[in-house]
Amino acid sequence: MARKSLSSLSWKNRFIDGTPGDKEAGGGPRQVPGACWSRVRPEPMPNPVLRMWSCEVAGMLGLDVADEKILGGNKIVMGMDPYAQRYGGHQFGNWAGQLGDGRAITLGEVDTGKTSLEIQLKGSGRTPYSRFADGRAVLRSSIREFLCSEAMHHLGVPSTRALSLVTTGEEVIRDVMYDGRPAAEPGAIVCRVADSFIRFGSFQIHANTGDFTTLRALVEYTIESHFPGHSADCDDALIEWLKEVADRTAFTIAHWMRVGFVHGVMNTDNMSIHGFTIDYGPYGWLEGYDPTWTPNTTDAMTKRYRYGQQAEVGAWNIARLLEAIGHLMREPTRLHEALESYYDAYREHSTGMWSKKLGLGHFEAGDDTLISDLISMLQLTETDMTVFFRLLSNIEKPEAEHLTPAIYNQEEGAPLEWGAWLTRWWNRVNGEPARAMMLRANPKYVLRNWMAQIAIESAEKGDYSVAMELHEMLKSPYDEHPEHEEKWFLKRPEWARNRVGSSMLSCSS
Ligand code: AMP
Ligand code: MG
């Protein structure tokens, strides 16, 4: 049988066929009122070379071979009708107007027989939504997106996926720390895959410009194409749909909290209507457990998107989506039902997550204080989140020295301070924590920034072996992998504490 390539897949273009679009194709940065998309073409790149490939995503699509020309944006095949999506968004709490796919280009949707998946190139050139920027992506941020979206999926966190990473052969100029020292970096393109890349901001742009006809068309399209069992017929139906979106968002954020993920830029244009983790930029993973931590240097002052505030920001973002959809309702005052539903869903998912992380089996009175005291202890003793929970999952006696490898500052006798909490927890679970549950809730391996940074520095020298090793290992993050333990089951090494790319990341990508 012939091996299946991108050109032999079954392509369709439901979004273009089902929503209003730009009359003009391509062109420079401009406002595009009344449209959900603009037709564009990926810009040809000098030398696309395939560097990373996800067999799982290829399998979902029914693909056997990679075509560098297509994945690098140098070729379009029959059935593709590439476009950039128009959306807006609240950035850091302020309405930013029209944003849109400034460097992402959707090639089309693939009908897999079971479902439809949108295939998008990120970093393949300018679109009408590029504003002042170049439409490119650098290798560093592309490796981070490729590895993290796949790692998140395998951790059980809803996420957009990555099929491939291609280097373009082109140099891209970036001022990484915004300090007036721009430098050339290798360019790259990640091919992303998801049910769709529709965002909260995709709806907001029409609501906030008073274009309720286009808003309605997009809502109807989205519900019909992606939310079976829902409809846009009346207020009740819209509220039910919004509750579903709220629940999915709460679920994903509860999972971020479980694994210690900090998105870093939870602007409403980076909130997927499906509740996927989307747009991997200056994200990070908690090392020392610090709820005030954000990896994003652009957010260093107010820390709006810090780890401990993600659920609250999720609610704020849901509220912006509700305001937008409210324009289609007779009684928009009822929208609070969907916001309450978000809080209820988050509470439920969060409680479930904590019971699993601590092997409690079920939630009891008093567990709240056990958890809040744990959170205080984790901070007081500067303890590594991932290592701590994994060691706790395997502990045989409630003895503090078992936790020593998780503690950063060991000089002050910190490990011993854990004794009292451990005894309480041990008594709560009658000496029999639900271990299997804990081992599925507490990953052994996550993509810490310094790990990604080592992979990036090697890849920039042409060696992708570390990136591939991490990709492979992070496909089973709950397995022990004794062969990887010494290298990757570690708290943050000292060199990474204050290093660019490891503890601090900018939006420059
Ligand atoms: P982000 O915060 O990275 O999700 O991006 C915010 C907006 O800036 C989106 O509209 C992006 O498409 C756009 N953007 C980011 N980087 C670039 C770039 N290099 N070229 C064009 N547009 C970009
Ligand atoms: Mg974005």
Structural class: alpha+beta
Overall number of strands:
12
Q: How much helix, percentage-wise, in residues?
A: 25-40%
User: How would a crystallographer describe the biggest sheet?
Assistant: 6 strands, antiparallel
Shape: globular
Ions, cofactors, ligands: which are bound?
Answer: adenosine monophosphate, magnesium ion
Strand content: 5-15%
Tell me the number of helical segments per DSSP (H or I, 4 or more residues long).
17
Residue ranges: pLDDT <50 for 5 or more in a row? none
- What is the radius of gyration? 23 Å
Topology as a string of helices (H) and strands (E): EHEEHHEEEEEHEEHHHEEHHHHHHHHHH
Distance between the termini: 41 Å
Strand order of the largest sheet: 1-7-8-10-9-3
Arithmetic mean of pLDDT: 96
Helices and strands in order, then pairings?
Layout: E1 11-12, H1 14-18, E2 37-39, E3 49-53, H2 55-61, H3 68-71, E4 83-85, E5 88-91, E6 94-98, E7 104-111, E8 116-122, H4 139-155, E9 161-174, E10 183-194, H5 200-207, H6 212-226, H7 235-259, E11 261-262, E12 284-285, H8 310-326, H9 336-357, H10 367-380, H11 385-394, H12 414-417, H13 419-428, H14 435-441, H15 449-460, H16 465-473, H17 482-488
Antiparallel strand pairs: 1-7, 2-4, 3-9, 5-6, 7-8, 8-10, 9-10, 11-12
Helix pairs in contact: 4-15, 5-6, 5-8, 7-8, 7-9, 8-9, 11-14, 15-16
Bound molecules: adenosine monophosphate (AMP) and magnesium ion (MG).
